[in-house]
Structure formats: structure tokens, C-alpha cells
Specification:
This protein has a two-stranded antiparallel sheet with strand order 1-2. The chain is mainly alpha-helical.
Length: 165
């Protein structure tokens, strides 16, 4: 009889504690008003925009797309020049030297695209294995755009650290 008494007392206490915790968590939720005000602080549009706002947004989008297309054209030109330089460097390897490759990473390249390019230039043997290494080590989201000079025989760690500086 005593054991049931203690069990019921503990069970009741647990229910009370759980109720208090759930009440606290439920009351902490953001209301619609809080969500809308936070969205406005972040510059998000809520509801129908006025004609001036729509025009302003459209102009802003057009300007950004012009900048992106100009950057892309510049990067493509740089990539083509770099590709030509890489081909020149790789076609003239010296007998006992390590082949160095100048490699360009553009903004729109993700980790698998970088890995495939590295494999194409002979820096790594397996693009999928290197991409898996980047993901496991947390490097895939930190790859920086730019021009890098890499050489054959570098370890995955050396390459990853160089690409994420």
C-alpha cells in the first residue's frame, strides 16, 4: 500500500512539472504581431506592396542582376585565361619537378564542382572521395572564391585548408 502512495505522489508531481514546462514553452512562442514586426525589421515585405515599392524592388533586382552578369563575365574570362595557363603548365612538365596548377574558384561553384575541376586538372584522384572528405570535415561551406596555385601530391587536408583560407 505504501508503494502505491509514493508512486501516485511522484506521478502527480511529474504531471505538475510537465504542465508548468509546457505552459512556459507555449507562452514563449512568437505571436503574429511579433513575427510581422521582426520581418519588417529584416526588410521583408508583408502583404501587398505599393507601386513605388514594387518599382524600387524591380530596379534593385535589375541592378543586382547586371552586377552578377558583369562578375560572371569577368570570372568566365579569368577562368578561360586560367584554363589556357593550366594547359600550358601541364603540357610542359619538367622531369623531376612537381606540376603546379593555377586553379580559379568562382562564386557559383559548389564543393562538388570544385572537386570535379581538381580531378580534371590531376590534383586529386577521386572527386567524390574529396567531396566526402570536405563534407565530413566541415569545409564544404567555407570554400572561398579566388585563384589558387595547387600542386600534384598535396594531401586532402592541405588542399582543403588552402581553399578555405
Amino acid at each position: 500500500m505504501m508503494k502505491i502512495k509514493y508512486f501516485l505522489r511522484g506521478f502527480g508531481t511529474g504531471l505538475i512539472v510537465a504542465t508548468v514546462l509546457l505552459f512556459l514553452l507555449y507562452s514563449y512562442q512568437m505571436s503574429d504581431v511579433k513575427v510581422v514586426s521582426r520581418a519588417k525589421e529584416l526588410g521583408m515585405v508583408y502583404g501587398k506592396a505599393t507601386a513605388e515599392e514594387e518599382t524600387s524592388v524591380e530596379n534593385h533586382v535589375k541592378e543586382e542582376s547586371k552586377q552578377v552578369s558583369e562578375e560572371t563575365t569577368l570570372e568566365e574570362t579569368t577562368l578561360e585565361e586560367t584554363t589556357a595557363e593550366v594547359e600550358e603548365k601541364t603540357t610542359e612538365p619538367q622531369s623531376n619537378s612537381v606540376v603546379e596548377v593555377e586553379f580559379t574558384i568562382s562564386q557559383e561553384m559548389d564543393s562538388i564542382a570544385v572537386c570535379e575541376e581538381l580531378q580534371k586538372y590531376g590534383i586529386i584522384d577521386d572527386a567524390n572521395a574529396f567531396d566526402k572528405y570536405l563534407i565530413e570535415q566541415g569545409y564544404e561551406g567555407r570554400i572561398q572564391k579566388g585563384i589558387y596555385t595547387l600542386r600534384e601530391g598535396m594531401s586532402y587536408e592541405e588542399i582543403a585548408k588552402m581553399l578555405t583560407k
